[in-house]
Write a structure and sequence with these properties.
Strand content: 5-15%
Largest sheet: 9 strands, mixed
Distance between the termini: 43 Å
GO molecular function: sterol ester esterase activity; triacylglycerol lipase activity
Pfam families: Abhydrolase_3
Protein name: Alpha/beta hydrolase fold-3 domain-containing protein
Number of strands: 11
Shape: elongated
Structural class: alpha/beta
Number of helices: 24
Length: about 575
Amino acid sequence: MLGHIAGRPSPSWDKIQAIVVLLMSYVALRKVPAAGPRPFQRIHNLLKKYTPWQILIGALTTLYAAHHADLLLGLTPAEPEKKMFSRRYTPGYTRGLWILSALDAGFFTSQNIRPKILRDTMSAVFSIFYLFFPKRAVEKNNMMLKVITATHMRRSWEKMLHPVIRLMTWVNAPKLGIRREITIRLTTAEGYHSDSEVTITIFFKGTEEEYARSESIILDIPGGGFVAMRPACHADYLMAWAGQTNMPIISIDYKKAPEFPFPYGLHECFDIYKTIVATKGACIGLKGAVLPRIALTGDSAGGTFAASVMNMIIEHRPVLPKPVGLLMVYPCMHVGLDFWICNSDLAVIEEEIARGPIPEDILKARPGRGDGMTLNSKAAFMDDQVLGSSFLRALMVMYIGGDTKLDHKSDYLVSPIYTPDRILAQYPRTYIITGEKDPLVDDSIIFMAKLRRAKRAAGADLESDTLRIVSGVSHAFMQMTGVVPEMKELVRVVGEEFLDMLKTPKAQEQTWGDASVQSVKDGDSDLVQVNVRPAVLSNPRQTSAAVLKWEQEYTRDAVTIYEHRRVAYLDQLGIDTHDDDSGHI
């Protein structure tokens, strides 16, 4: 209150106010008679017949009733939490948000405590407190978002490194034969972008000998908003994939913004891929006899890097072998905060819609151009508890840095959604999984629509390109596997996709693409040189019946989720359009 009276609300004024209140309380205890002023003496006489226990319970009950008087008297808005959580998210995801929100608030509260052992202890204590008071956790997190810094993000998002959480991850994870870090040295003299040392973490179920003979690897680029989270922060699901697939998981600890803004981290990820290909895996401890089959993957900001690395691979000269597949989990394909779907992007989506059977009611529910409801998902879910609009703004500013020459509206290494068709047509098998209520979901929808359009025009294989939108969840559901058992099924489904993506290819007949004929003079002989461009060989998707059943039950196609545009718009106007849905996850 004092800060508002002074016109300068701040933590400093809050601290002064707390000190003033404590001093006034001290004076009241020492200078005022023990029975209190005359009106309180009568109350004191009345309370003599009650025990201290009864007085304590009565006082706490009175405080609780006063704190919730607006609820008891019906003075609150019309069920805001029901609209935000019960009607938007599934029960499983809502429980995960509750736990992660409490952890975030606890880690924010303890971030300035020294030494580390005391900070770790108090962060656990505060987190438990916020579990019992979830609204206080939301208030704390929202307050921190107003002054968020890279240090704040790292303290909060890297909570998976807390000793207690690491112990929980280790207990629940499969037993691995190999989990270690190695450092790869990159130099400009060898053709890399910078002189640097990049640490990678290896997760593998088998023995050292089995690892050295591996013919397939999963190259992971971990997310973290471009500013935080090492591979160890993703260990719960990376270890699960290693145990499920029996393939090495190679996770890159690239340099983070804002100390290393775009394109430093991206270049490191590309250079790691390039050196793995150049050494046939010897740089990461493989025997190097054959080039391993590589599946490239990333989540969130790591998904952004995965697509950008794919663009760099395709454009690189001399030609680099491409990964056999690209798998992205809730990627950010557009580094920007536009709140409307532009007509050109909407046209691409509508083109894909027109190619498939769409129920008439869904077509009517989907907003079209010019109706005022073509909000993109960043606008529809700008109040998201994980990726709110103010938080996204901070992440993007730190990632892009102060480069005034950078055009983030067209640079497809910054925003892969702008990747031209000539590059998209050369993409390998691509799989994207994201949340229906994720602020970034439209990035995936538009990118997949453009990818399919480009491949169709080039006559390339697009039957195995897949977009899966998980019903009733938002961002960061992979981070909930350690605290929400229901989310483990999502990790297993993605692991099945890796197994199918990296399966040993069957023998195929030679296929040919476009050819051009050129006469070459060599002495007295006329030679004919045929320049052949091989057709793109398919990597057909052959998933198990269990995975297909899971997808049918828990995911939605890219068309039906456009209902949320209408719902979000009408919600803002105070028009209730929801039915009480029970979530699956």
